[in-house]
Amino acid sequence: MKYKNVIWDFDGTLFNSYPAMIESFMMALREKDIEEDTKTIETLMKISVPTVIEYIQNKYNCSDDVVNRFNEIRKDIEIKKCIPYEDTLSTLQFIINQGGSNFIFTHRDKSTIEILKQYSMHSLFTECVTKEYGFERKPSPDGINYLIDKYNLDKKETIMIGDRELDILSGNNANIDSCFFNNENKTNCSLATFSINCLSKIKEKN
Predict the structure, then answer these.
(1) CA triplet 122, 127, 130: central angle to 5 degrees?
(2) By C-alpha distance, which of 180, 152, 182 is closest to 5?
(3) How confident is the model at residue 142 (pLDDT cuts 50, 70, 90)?
(4) DSSP tag of 102
(5) Is there a contact between 199 and 94 (Cβ–Cβ < 8 Å)?
(6) Range 115-123 contact pairs with CB under 8 angstroms and sequence separation of 24 or more
(7) Residue 12 vs residues 42, 91, 94, 104: alpha-carbon distances, Å
(8) pLDDT band at 67 (very low <50, low <70, confident <90, very high)
(9) What's the rounded Cα separation, in Å, for the pair 168 and 71?
(10) CB 130 within 8 A of CB 109
């Protein structure tokens, strides 16, 4: 097994959480009588949540109320609407069956654990590094380096998997391999060690 230690991004990689996130943001904006193009919000959201927030605050001079409301709405709806991708469970289980370990490094808060528990997946992860840990956001490698140091992971056997360039850069900055999850037929990230269009393809790399 080449990659015994797999560090996953959460949103857009293990779980298709973007629809719930986009809907939450649109609802928060409409409460402020702001009509914004959904596609624009989606594009920016898939870069990062701070990118969306910066865009909205600069364009509409919004207060933090919009952001706070977004987070409130998101917590209410995403438990039902945030769903795993088709091959998530089988891929995670495959890695464990082969003697490997799964980890998560995400900007999301402890709701990560709540969602995993809802789908009985939390036991498939050795540790989930969430917002509460206080590490610098990706592309900083701090969260990855924490896991490497804590579990004495061999960097040659460790990989970061994510659907955004910042995930790839985070892995590269930690001097480990990186995998770009491209399930939307986007342009592949040239910075990644390799790309896959469905999670089960990681099995072929091992």
Answers:
(1) 95
(2) 152
(3) very high
(4) E
(5) no
(6) 115/15, 115/17, 115/78, 115/79, 115/82, 118/79, 119/84, 119/89, 121/84, 121/88, 121/89, 121/92
(7) 12, 15, 20, 13
(8) confident
(9) 26
(10) yes
Q: How confident is the model over 117-134, as pLDDT tens digits?
A: 999 999 999 999 999 999
pLDDT of amino acid 137 = 95
pLDDT in tens, 20-57: 989 999 999 999 899 999 999 999 988 888 999 999 98
Using the structure block, give the residue that is written with the tokens 């590269």. Answer: 172
Decide: 195 and 182 in contact? Cβ < 8 Å.
yes
Nearest Cα neighbor of 90 from 98, 80, 78 is 98
Q: With CA atoms as reference, report the closest residue to 85 among 20, 19, 13, 18.
A: 13
Q: Report the relative pairing of strands 101-105 and 5-8 from DSSP bridges.
A: parallel
Spatial neighbors of 85 by CB under 8 A, at least 6 apart, are 14, 15, 16, 183, 198, 199
